[in-house]
Design brief:
Elements lengths: L2 H7 L2 H27 L5 H21 L8 H44 L2 H6 L4 H10 L2 H11 L9 H8 L3 H22 L3 H7 L2 H18 L18 H15 L1 H5 L6 H28 L3 H19 L2 H19 L7 H11 L8 H20 L22 H34 L3 H25 L17 H25 L1
Helix pairs in contact: 2-3, 2-4, 3-4, 3-9, 4-7, 4-19, 9-21, 11-12, 11-14, 12-15, 12-20, 14-15, 15-16, 15-20, 18-19, 19-20, 20-21
């Protein structure tokens, strides 16, 4: 029996998941010991909670094992990545509980004090340290938190007060457990649903799914305010669910009109125009609408992900390299064009592109440091990690403001070093290869494109996040799957894994 077959039906998946659980527990114990030695006192209750939640992967394995014909390797890799996420977030949250809130208070207090001073006064005098400290302490925590929310654009929204009130009355640890269990339940649900031919037939109806996608996009644009980039209820982004419906639509549409995309264009002018409009007209329209809404939401990270997804899916369908290299060329050209279109783009987008194109631009004054503070601290963390890292619990992750989401990779590199970073990237690479193996084993065009879409979605998201952190591409604010903190992103990632495992199960049934 080969290793692959063992992972499909033998005991290897059990031991793989068990190893992921043990790695998670050992990692959190290391953080707990280091935290107590350094004085930031990680929670033992959270450690036990996370360990118990990781054990749910074993329950999933035993629930699926009797009838599952697919490859359990995906579940093992996801358990490993989730465990890394638990260890990383446990490490970061332990430090945040002690010094991050105090740091925020001081930062926003100092900013407010400076803002209240007359321009002439700030130009000629500065507050000494003791006076500034006294003024900071006089400001109440409530006023600072309100100011921070305003500066971070976290003010309440009129259309979701009931939802917000519900979340405010539910403890944070309960929300985490509920969201994690929902994610795992969704994985099981979609694995089982994908075994139904009737369910797959319903998915293959592209125009139904495009209607659902467009309707939900507009609903959430209305529910959320454009200036918050689609976020509402504790910075969650529920429109991430559109990734699923968009992929389903693209797979259904491309498989339905495969012959039209592959057919050679007639030489007669009228027929040539008609042959171009039939497949490409609706496709370009459906591509344009979500892209336009992402632009309105000022979330250009999603523009990159969605654009890359479309390019890869068309290439897999047509096997024509002109679409692949043409899409890459358009992406490169667009990035250069953005640098020349300062007046047409939001300030934060231009700032990210400028930081990417020339972060060392002079003068290196206070304004420059304020702009590069986050990315520079990320570079410091990457450099400080060296080959083996400073050790779990022994770094300084809270020096990076968005370390829990956008820059979580920097925290991992600092404490686990280059070797730990390579292990993480290798795990994502294995997940990508497992997804592409599902693509290779699938003989149905719709299911093949589904597998391509879901695999590509995860791969591009990983590339965009890590690429932004190491300055390979501009920062986009995209989370790292299974590791970054983010409720809806975490849920959608598990739904994608559910679909991939379901498609693997269908391949296994067909082969057996």
């Amino acid at each position: 029996m080969t290793k692959i077959n063992k992972f499909k039906s033998g005991k290897s998946p059990f031991y793989g998941i068990l190893a992921a659980i043990l790695v998670t527990i050992i990692g959190m114990l290391s953080v707990y010991i280091a935290g107590n030695a350094r004085g930031y006192d990680p929670s033992l209750i959270v450690l036990v909670r996370n360990a118990l939640l990781m054990c749910v992967f074993l329950i999933i394995y035993y629930l699926l094992k009797p009838n599952y014909k697919g490859d359990f390797s995906i579940l093992v890799i996801v358990a490993f990545l989730t465990g890394i996420g638990f260890v990383t977030q446990y490490r970061i949250s332990a430090a945040i509980n002690v010094d991050f809130q105090e740091t925020l208070i001081k930062q926003y207090s100092a900013a407010a004090i400076k803002k209240m001073q007359p321009d002439s006064l700030t130009a000629t005098t500065t507050l000494n340290d003791s006076t500034e400290t006294d003024l900071i302490r006089e400001r109440s925590l409530d006023s600072i938190q309100k100011e921070a929310k305003q500066l971070l654009k976290l003010e309440k929204f009129k259309l979701n007060e009931l939802i917000r009130e519900f979340f405010e009355n539910v403890p944070g640890w309960s929300r985490f457990i509920i969201s994690f269990l929902i994610a795992l339940f969704s994985l099981i649900y979609f694995v089982k649903k994908c075994s139904s031919d009737r369910f797959m037939d319903s998915l293959s109806k592209p125009f139904f799914w495009v209607t659902v996608t467009i309707f939900l996009l507009f609903v959430f644009v209305v529910l959320s305010e454009v200036k918050t980039r689609g976020r509402f209820v504790y910075q969650m982004t529920p429109w991430e669910a559109f990734k699923i419906t968009i992929i389903i639509f693209l797979a259904g549409f491309l498989s339905k009109y495969k012959e039209d995309f592959l057919r050679r264009k007639p030489k007669i002018r009228g027929q040539r125009i008609k042959s171009l409009l039939i497949p490409w007209g609706p496709f370009i329209l459906i591509w344009f609408i979500p892209q336009l809404l992402f632009v309105l939401l000022k979330d250009f990270g999603q523009v990159i992900i969605y654009g890359g997804l479309v390019v890869v899916m068309i290439f897999v369908l047509t096997r024509r390299y002109i679409y692949l290299f043409g899409g890459i060329a358009v992406t490169v050209f667009t990035s250069k064009l953005i640098l020349l279109s300062e007046s047409f783009l939001p300030a934060h987008v231009m700032q990210r592109f400028k930081l990417w194109s020339d972060i060392w631009v002079l003068p290196h004054n206070e304004a420059w440091w304020n702009n590069v503070y986050q990315i520079m601290n990320s570079f410091f963390a990457l450099n400080a990690g060296g080959v083996t890292g400073s050790g779990l619990g022994l770094g300084y992750p809270t020096n990076i403001p968005l370390v829990v989401s956008d820059f979580v990779y920097s925290a991992i590199c600092e404490e686990l070093g280059f070797l730990g970073a390579i292990v993480l990237v290798f795990a994502y690479l294995v997940l990508f290869l497992l997804g592409m193996r599902i693509v290779a084993e699938t003989d149905n065009d719709f299911e093949k494109l589904l597998a391509v879409g879901f695999t590509t979605m995860l791969a591009i998201q990983v590339f965009v996040n890590i690429g932004g952190v190491i300055k390979l591409i501009p920062l986009t604010g995209i989370t790292l799957p299974f590791i970054s903190r983010g409720g809806f992103s975490f849920l959608i990632s598990f739904i994608i894994i559910g679909f991939l495992m379901g498609l693997s199960h269908r391949n296994g049934k067909r082969i057996s």
